[in-house]
Design a protein that fits this description.
5-stranded parallel β-sheet; alpha/beta
Length: about 500
């Protein structure tokens, strides 16, 4: 189609690296013209640029360390990758996609969707690709940014959209350098390494490992899944949208809107709100569904015993899969529950003394979820660095603002709804909230805006207290928990998040 051709030709522009002075001049809105720097061109960074443009701010530079947009969907290309949030909920409200092929989208479709939105909504001219921000220093109302390529630029406002799941977590296993085969983290999948007909070992049993298991078991000679902790598996009906259904979504947009509204409501009521109330009936129903899934699909009682968790469902991030139990019971698949002793030249040795000989080892070991903007060196008022501010762990007021770091705002920052809502929904609500603060800067009503220390302490105290009622503290070790054992996530229902994000409480801010 003409639109597809236009998008294809425009997309080639994303492989260039425009300099900051190539970005159109901003037009005056209110009393002040603002220049905004956005860090990251994943889902949230693309959103930030679009919403800033809608607000009349066009002097924007979006810095991206990689050579393409997409964030986690660009980084993760492992076999079987997909989203565990329904496709039409994990999409921008202003850019519905009638062409998703399944209820839960494969990763390549989400990446293509983000690329298309970036083109169609004018994000491309604002991108500076392949240039990581390494330093941001605030001085007298201006943020001075410096990139790895030596580029320097000044901004009135900085929006950090660097994401949560982007620093791979490497396991501490003896002998990791001795293996003679191919070894890589799942988020750094080496597409040049042949997989078919080989002996593959995967370390980890989270969502990524489960997806890889289903995708690879029929392709390899032998598949070994090294499990430290079993996971509850929620069955997935990943229905295929027919050509007729997608045509209806395309020709009758209100039908797609109705589907999205239904899925949003069902997702919030049946899952997001359930996990923040450990006593909820819906949470018991989730566990009953997961247990029935295990017992109906795994016939060997010994294998079933090793696959059944001893903690409550959703205490860890709930894994959703249509094929994991079938895959792990294939004749060439093996669930290894003995602890890993070391990695050797020919494979992985467990503490039973057995050597599992392998050609490829995949580290599906998750991410350093507390890094956020780091390793970028960020310096706020009076020379205070982000490392100093976060010495006891990352915190932010409503996950958006950090005291003593004026005019710096975050999308999907610390202690936000990372574990129980669609992050696109979260980012949209946060961006609308941030824009209300930015408009004060535009209008000249404020020159510096940042949360007060008192507001953040009060919010943190309420958050920590509320977290004690969630399922995340019921007896498991998960990436939701910080060093103190406190869930680093939003512990209230989604409706409360909507209410809080509707309008900033200016008493909580220095302005």
């Amino acid at each position: 189609s003409t639109r597809a051709s236009r998008s294809a030709s425009c997309w080639s522009a994303l492989n260039v690296r425009p300099m900051a002075d190539a970005v159109p001049d901003s037009r005056l809105v209110g009393d002040r013209s603002l220049r905004v720097g956005v860090i990251g061109a994943g889902m949230a960074g693309i959103l930030a640029v679009i919403k800033l443009r809608e607000a009349g701010i066009t002097d924007i530079v979006c810095f991206e360390k990689a050579d393409r947009v997409g964030g986690t969907w660009r980084e993760n290309t492992y076999p079987g990758i997909g989203c565990d949030v329904p496709s039409h909920v994990y999409s921008y409200s202003f850019a519905p996609n009638p062409d998703f092929t399944r209820m839960f989208s494969p990763g390549h479709e989400i990446q293509a969707y983000l690329e298309r939105v970036a083109v169609d909504h004018g994000v491309v001219p604002h991108l500076r690709l392949g240039d990581e921000v390494v330093s941001a220093i605030y001085d007298r109302g201006v943020w001075h940014l410096e990139t790895a390529r030596g580029h320097r630029a000044d901004f009135d406002v900085v929006i950090a959209a660097s994401g949560v799941l982007h620093h791979p977590r490497m396991p501490e296993i003896d002998g990791v350098d001795e293996f003679e085969g191919a070894m890589f983290h799942s988020a750094r999948w080496d597409q040049d390494v042949p997989i078919d007909g080989r002996r593959v070992g995967v370390i980890g049993t989270g969502s990524t490992a489960v997806q890889i298991t289903g995708a690879l078991v029929d392709r390899v000679e032998h598949f070994s899944l090294f499990q430290r902790t079993p996971q509850w598996i929620m069955p997935m009906d990943n229905k295929l949208f027919s050509d007729d259904q997608r045509a209806t979504f395309r020709n009758e947009p209100h039908r797609l809107r109705e589907l999205r509204d239904f899925l949003e409501s069902a997702f919030a009521e049946n899952f997001a709100d359930a996990v923040v109330d450990a006593k909820s009936e819906r949470l018991e129903q989730i566990e009953d569904t997961c247990r029935a899934n295990l017992y109906q699909h795994v016939t060997d009682p010994e294998l079933r015993r090793r696959l059944e968790p001893d903690y409550r469902a959703a205490c860890k991030r709930l894994v959703v899969s249509a094929d994991f139990y079938d895959a792990i019971q294939k004749p060439n698949a093996e669930l290894v529950t003995a602890a890993i002793s070391r990695i050797e030249r020919r494979g992985i040795r467990t503490d039973t003394g057995r050597l599992h000989e392998l050609d490829v080892i995949v580290l599906a070991t998750g991410f350093e979820v507390d890094r956020f903007m780091r390793p970028t060196v960020i310096t706020g008022l009076d020379g205070r660095t982000l490392e100093e501010a976060w010495a006891d762990g990352p915190t932010a007021y409503l996950s958006v603002s950090i005291p003593e770091f004026p005019n710096l705002f975050m999308l999907n920052g610390p202690n936000g709804p990372v574990g129980n809502f669609s992050l696109i929904q979260v980012a949209e609500l946060q961006m609308d909230y941030i824009l209300q603060l930015v408009r004060r800067l535009q209008a000249g009503l404020s020159t510096e805006i940042h949360a007060t220390e008192a507001a953040m302490r009060e919010h943190e105290a309420r958050r920590i207290e509320a977290a004690q009622a969630t399922v995340w503290v019921t007896g498991c070790n998960s990436w939701y928990l910080d060093a103190r054992g406190v869930p680093a996530a939003w512990p209230w229902p989604f409706r409360r998040f909507r209410e809080v994000m509707a309008e900033p409480d200016l008493d909580a801010y220095h302005h």
